[in-house]
Write a structure and sequence with these properties.
It contains six helices and no strands. Helix content is 72%, strand content 0%. It has a domain of 82 residues: Cytochrome c-like domain (Cytochrome Bc1 Complex, Chain D, domain 2). Bound molecules: heme C (HEC). The site of heme C has 21 residues, from α3, α4 and α5.
Length: 130
């Protein structure tokens, strides 16, 4: 009497555990996708807000003189960091913003600035093109 029931138990175990693994993978995967989505949504408001602001290149140049000339030169001609005169033609505004606030390429640090100052800096960099 014992034999059939223990047999069925044995054959049930693998089914349950592979279903569990399957479900766990799905849960983990959706969690990762969820976190990734949150992560990319979280980044964008700063960029969106900055791009919605009409920056002032004069206050941008002041910000630049305080924060950036040490590496990019007094007139952004390049020093430790590259010349920025054509940077707005080479990189999208979004990339430039990320460059400044995220510290993607050491030794350039990340800057904690508000969208308004970022818009001013961006306007300054655009003014270098002309
Ligand atoms: C500690 C030095 C340092 C400071 C301070 C600094 N940068 Fe940089 N920056 C660099 C270096 C080095 C690079 C090149 C990184 C690389 O190799 O891609 C760079 C790259 C950049 C780029 C991309 C240029 C390109 O052609 O890819 C931009 C835009 C930029 N910096 C803007 C700024 C602004 C705006 C500030 C001030 C808020 C600033 N940087 C402050 C060192 C610095």
């Amino acid at each position: 009497m014992n034999t059939p029931s223990s047999k069925s138990l044995i054959s049930d175990v693998p089914k349950i555990s592979s279903l569990r693994i399957f479900l766990l993978s799905i849960v983990t995967l959706s969690l990762l996708i969820f976190l990734w989505t949150i992560g990319s949504l979280k980044k964008d408001p700063f960029v969106t807000e900055t791009l919605s602001i009409q920056g002032d290149s004069l206050s941008g140049s002041k910000l630049f003189k305080i924060n950036c000339v040490g590496c990019h030169g007094i007139s952004a001609q390049g020093l430790v960091g590259p010349d920025l005169h054509e940077v707005t033609e080479q990189l999208s505004d979004k990339k430039i913003i990320n460059q400044v606030i995220r510290g993607l390429t050491p030794p350039m640090p990340s800057f904690e600035i508000d969208p308004h100052s970022m818009a001013d800096l961006l306007a300054y960099m655009h003014s270098l093109d002309q």
